[in-house]
Amino acid sequence: MPFMEGISYYNRYTGRVEQEQVLGEKYLQWIYGTASGRLALHALVKRGMFSALMGWWKNRPSSAKGIPAFVEEYGINMEESLKGLGEFKHFNDFFYRRLKAGARPLSGGEETAVFPADARHMGWERADRISGVFVKGQRFDLPALLGDASLAERYAEGAVVLSRLCPTDYHRFHFPVSGIPGRWRRMGGPLASVSPYCLSRSLSWLWTNKRNLTLVQSESWGQVAMLEVGATGVGLIEETYVPEEFAARGAEKGYFAFGGSTVMCFFEPGRIRLASDLLEKTGEGMEMFARQGDMMGKSV
Fold it and tell me: d(Cα 150, Cα 143) in Å, to the nearest integer?
């Protein structure tokens, strides 16, 4: 299979198709697109050694020296950040920085589900009919993804939204609806990349990577499942919410340490009508960029 050239996405705010600035693009092309790279993938990346080393480096005080160059190269808007450029202890402190109050206003009221993260999103009206994710012909294994056949059956005919964060995004994730979240369940696995470069080769990274699953009980939305998927460089998926306590729509749920990551939201059948532009772009096989707190869909 030829390696895909570049990553294009639709920007909800500009109304244009844009090109993603891919961090470590040549590395991804080598490790997922060549025989020698795939050997390194098995030996280091999948086994977590690379991510552990990366996490160690990004937590060292000396790593803060690289923040200004990263901000400039990728056009990070520091006006939104609670901390100033010189206040971060290390690179990860910058990477999962908090934003100022009001930086991500919530769309609509309680009848509106909002995106959980700044990300490139895809959405499907039925989880059991997902097809053509980054490449045609790959089967989506819902029971393996959720780690539970009964949960997979519960959400099979309901809507699902996949939100892919790239390393240049704001890396805290939030609740899409109000409700009472249970305790998260950790599922083990490797830490392969979830970039379209890599998912076009093997979609199964989504259900074999390390991931956290949380069930949110909502009076208006029924039971909503949230799944956070780690990736290369992500040695940590940190949950910051309090289990069994009410969480308001848009409240922080947790954050990812350095690397690209994915959040998935699953709804029971008949609970949500996804945004028309999200469905349209997904139907075209294209991700749509939207920020955390923007409208994902409306209650039915």
Answer: 8
Nearest CA to 205 out of 76, 51, 45 is that of: 45
Tens of pLDDT, residues 159-190: 999 999 988 899 999 999 999 999 999 987 65
Domain boundaries, the chain: 12-95, 112-299
Q: Where are the alpha helices (DSSP H) in 20-121?
A: 25-33, 35-40, 49-58, 67-74, 91-95
112-299 adopts what CATH topology? Glucose Permease (Domain IIA) (2.70.70)
Q: Which residues are catalytic?
A: 118, 174, 261
- What value, to the nearest 5°, has the Cα angle with vertex 128 and ends 160 and 246? 35
pTM score, whole prediction:
0.84
Helix (H, G, I), strand (E, B) or coil at 267: coil
pLDDT category at 3 given cuts 50, 70, 90 is very low
Of 250, 21, 289, 271, residue with least CA distance to 116: 250
CA separation for the pair 292, 265 (Å, rounded): 13
CA distances from 73 to 76, 79, 87, 127, 279 (A): 8, 16, 19, 37, 32
Going by their DSSP bridges, the two strands 8-11 and 16-19 should be labelled as antiparallel
Cα distance between residue 242 and residue 204, in whole Å: 30
